[in-house]
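Notes to self after the Tuesday call (sharing in case useful).
The group wants a holo model before anyone commits to mutagenesis around the pocket. I volunteered. Ligand is pyridoxal-5'-phosphate. Logging inputs and output together so the record is complete.
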Amino acid sequence: MKNYANKNIQAMQPYQPPIEGRRSFDGLLLDFNERTTPFGNVIVEAIKKFANNNKFQIYPEYGDITKDIAEYVNIKPENIMITNGSDQGIDLIFRTFTKKDEEVIIPSPSFAMFYQCSRVIDNKIIMPKYGSNDMSFPLDDVLNSITEKTKLVVICNPNNPTGTLISVADIEKICKKAKDAIVYVDEAYAEFSGVTAVPLLDKYPNLIITRTFSKAFGLVALRIGYVIARPELIKEMLKVRGPYDINMVSLCAAKTALQNLDNLDNYVDEVMEKSKPMLEKFLDDVDIRYYESGSNFILIKPKDSKKIYEKLIQNGIQTRLRKDESINGAVRITIGTIKQTKQLINTLKTLL
Ligand SMILES: Cc1ncc(COP(=O)(O)O)c(C=O)c1O
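Result:
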């Protein structure tokens, strides 16, 4: 049959993360940087109440959700646009602000959806490499790559899969140099890192940030995220987003989560202040190399990584073996609760 797809789409592969079978996996899922425990029963109760209202036949209304999110982010409601997961935010940014053959800068390795969305548009992608020793953000290379042709610079902070952070001061340098382009900061893991470019929005009209309820809030199956930007940019992106792209069940869950921020804080505190240092100490003790992470996941480079990855699965623990060029053979591990981290450490001990 004739292939009717655009040439650039024909040349692409679908982004197919190894997702099948995870929901029925009877072990520890440390492979997708998710929250490893449910947010709690408040979400279930709120969804039940919403469902009992039984008005699924009426189109969604979003009410004052942007106000709730704005309060949480400490910004104005006109700076917020909700999206169907932050994946949709990424897609909207590429579709609204870039065209075929235009230059975009996406440091590598980074989150697959950046490259995917960019290839759909058929941009010219420039990929400065994260530092080979410490996986630090390639600031000089990014700054040197910015020219009058640059339309978009992507900064994943903290970066998936490396976990490494770039400082807000360095993001500001990029905003200044790329003043005629969009500077896009992905903050999917901001709750864990505590680092945010939001204060730069006052000074830089070219800055866009995406966030999500998928990670620290643990609502990934419901698909809700949001964009933070100047209202002028949101106005343009709203022309591209559909009017009903976010469903009301997700909205109800997100609203409820925002009313229960203690739950979020407790989880983030457990992961970042207790589990993460415990795991890092263990890795130091057994001399397994890892990269400095600002998030709820860590990239480790054991000598026989494939074997360790496979043995972990046999022992009921899923992690993610990375094949990206510069980190080939590294294993990315989600950091969960103290109990789960102890289980991981005990299992690793028996394997080493
Ligand atoms: C850096 C980064 N951005 C965005 C996403 C997408 O998240 P969402 O579930 O909000 O679409 C992910 C998911 O893994 C991610 O790692």
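Two things stood out.
Residues 33, 85-87, 111, 156, 160, 186, 188, 212, 214, 220, 225 surround pyridoxal-5'-phosphate (CB under 6 Å).
The domain at 7-39+261-351 is CATH 3.90.1150.10 (Aspartate Aminotransferase, domain 1).
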